Target: CTP synthase
Amino acid sequence: MKYVVVSGGVISGIGKGVLASSTGLLLKTLGLRVTSIKIDPYMNIDAGTMSPLEHGECFVLNDGGEVDLDLGNYERYLNITLTKNHNITTGKIYSKVIERERKGDYLGKTVQVVPHITNAIQEWIEEVARIPVDDTGLEPEVCIIELGGTVGDIESAPFVEALRQFQFRVGSDNFALIHVSLVPVIHGEQKTKPTQAAIKDLRSLGLTPDMIACRCQEELLTQTVEKIGMFCHVGPEQVIAVHDVNSTYHVPLLLKQQKMMNFLTKKLTIGEIPQAALHKGEQLLQKWRQLTSSHDKSFETVTIALVGKYTHLHDSYLSVIKSLEHASMRCNRRLKIEWVESTDLEEGMKQENLSKYHQAWHYVCQADGILVPGGFGSRGIEGMIAAAKYARENNVPYLGVCLGLQIAVIEFVRNVLGIQGSTSQEFDTYKEEDGIKPSVVYMPDVDQIKLGGTMRLGIHETRFTLDSKDCVLRKLYGGSDAVYERHRHRYEVNPELIDEIEEKGLKFIGKDESGKRMEMIELPQSMHKFFVGTQYHPEYLSKVLDPSRPFLGLVAASAGILEDILARDDLNYKGEF
Ligand SMILES: *[C@@H]1O[C@H](CO)[C@@H](O)[C@H](O)[C@H]1NC(C)=O
Ligand SMILES: *[C@@H]1O[C@H](CO)[C@@H](O)[C@H](O)[C@H]1NC(C)=O
Ligand SMILES: *[C@@H]1O[C@H](CO)[C@@H](O)[C@H](O)[C@H]1NC(C)=O
Ligand SMILES: CC(=O)N[C@H]1CO[C@H](CO)[C@@H](O)[C@@H]1O
Model:
C-alpha cells in the first residue's frame, strides 16, 4: 500500500481537496486502484449533527454514514464508494482510545497523546486504507490522505505527529507528502515568503515535503518556481504550480502537464502495472480530456433556479451544484445557477420588501428549470410551494429532491385535489385539530423519541412501478427495474392520499421494496415536459463522468434536449447495493 498525504499550509480553503482528488484521479489513470481518507481535526464524532451554516452540507454514504462534504469530492472524482470509517475526526480517535481505556486494554498505564492517540490514528489509517472501494472488489493500491486544517494548528498536532511516525512505519518508498501552499500576488509580484514559512513549519514538525503545490491566481513564473525550489530545498520538478483554471475539472490535466506523476511514481517506486489496468486507466484519462475540452467549447447556457434556504451559503448545497455541473457537462451547456431564497417568494415579502419579492420571482420566471433541493424545518416552505406551482402550471422543468418531492406533493394536494391548508406533519403550521389530511406524514417505523440517528439513511432500493414507455425517469435510468440511491429523510407522502393524487394525474412511479413508501413522482409527459421528484437524494451518487439521472433529466429538459439525451445509448444504469 502506498500512501500520499496532502496537507496544507498558510491558510485553509485553498483547494486542498481538489488537489488531493485530482492527484488520486491521475494515479487512477495510471491503472492503479485508489482510495482516500479524510482527516478532520475537530472533536465532533457525527457530522450529521453539525450545522450546515457552519460546515456546509452533510454528505451521506452508502452505509448511511453522515460525513464531511469532502468525502463526496473523492467519490465523485475517483468513482469510488467510501464508508463511514473513511472519515477520521479527533473526536472519533479519542472516543476509541477512551473506550479501550475503560475496558482496561491499556492495563492501567498512563494513556497519553503520544503514543496512544498517535498509534490509534496510524492503526485506523492502515485498517481503513485496505477496504475495497471500487467494482473490482480488490484492496486499493494507493491511499490519498487529506489532512484537514493547516499544519501548525493546535488541533492538527496529534495527526501531524502520527503521520511523522507513519512515514517510518510504512517505509519512505511507500509514503509521499504533498504540501499545498499559497503564492499571493502583491503589487504584481508573486510572493514566496508564506510558502517558505509554511515549509519551515512543516520541517520543524519532522515532515519533509516531496512535492509543493503552489496555489496562485495566475500562472507561476519560472523564477518563482526556482526561488521556491531553492529556499525550500527541493528540486524544481517537485514544485507544482496550480493556478486558477476554468473549472476544477481542469486541475488533473494541469497537474499532468507538469509531469507530476513522473516524480510521484519514482518516489513511490510504483512497479509494472498489468496491461488490462493500464488500458482502463488510459480510457479514463481519455474520457476526462474529452469532458473538459467539450466543456470549454460549449457556449449555450442553461439556467436553473435553485429555490432553497440559506442560498447565500453555497456550500450547503455542494453536491446538488456538482450534480448540476456534471449534468450540464454531459449536455454540453454552460450552467448558470440562480440562487433564490425561498422566503423571498412568499406573500409576506411583498409587505416587507417589494423589490426583493419581484426580483426573486424574476429569477424564477427567467430560469429554464427549477430545482427544490432537500432541507429541514418549516421556514420558507410556502415560497417553495409557490415555485412548484409555477413550474407545474407553466410547463417549466421541475426537479424536487427529498423535501422538494414533498413540496410538489403538498402543492398538488392543495391546488389540484383542493385540500387547502394541507401540509406536512414536519411543519409548525400543521395542526392535528384542523381535521385537514396532511400530505406528508412522519415515517411510522422510526423511533420518534430520539432525534439523532432516527432517519432513514444510506442506500436503499427503489422499484419502478411503470414501464419505460410511460416513465421518463425510468428511461433516464436506462430502463432499469430498480435503482439504488442514498436516502436521508424522516417524513413521507401520506399513503391515504395516494389514490386520489394518482387519479388527478401525478404518478407515484417508484416505491421501496415493501411497496409502502412512495419514492418517486412524475407528471406524465402528456401533461408536463419534466416534472419529477425523488424522495432519495440522487446528488450523493452523481459522478463527474456519470451524472445523476434525475439531474441529467432536469438539465436536458431545461435545455430543450431531453429527447436527444434519451435517444443516446449511453444511459446504461448499473445500480449496486
Ligand atoms: C464507475 O464505477 C462503476 C462501478 O463501481 C462502473 O460500473 C463504472 O463503469 C465506472 N464509471 C466510469 C466512468 O469509470
Ligand atoms: C477556458 O475556456 C475558454 C472558453 O471559455 C477557452 O477558450 C480556454 O481555452 C479555456 N482555458 C483552458 C486553460 O482550458
Ligand atoms: C430590499 O431588497 C433589496 C435587494 O433585493 C435591498 O437592496 C434593499 O436594501 C432591501 N430594502 C430594505 C428596506 O430592506
Ligand atoms: C458520522 C459517522 O458516520 N461516523 C462514523 C465514523 O466512523 C466511526 C467509527 O467506525 C463510526 O462509529 C461513526 O458512526
Q: What stands out?
A: The chain has a mean pLDDT of 89. The first strand starts at residue 2 and ends at 8. The two ends are 26 Å apart (CA to CA).
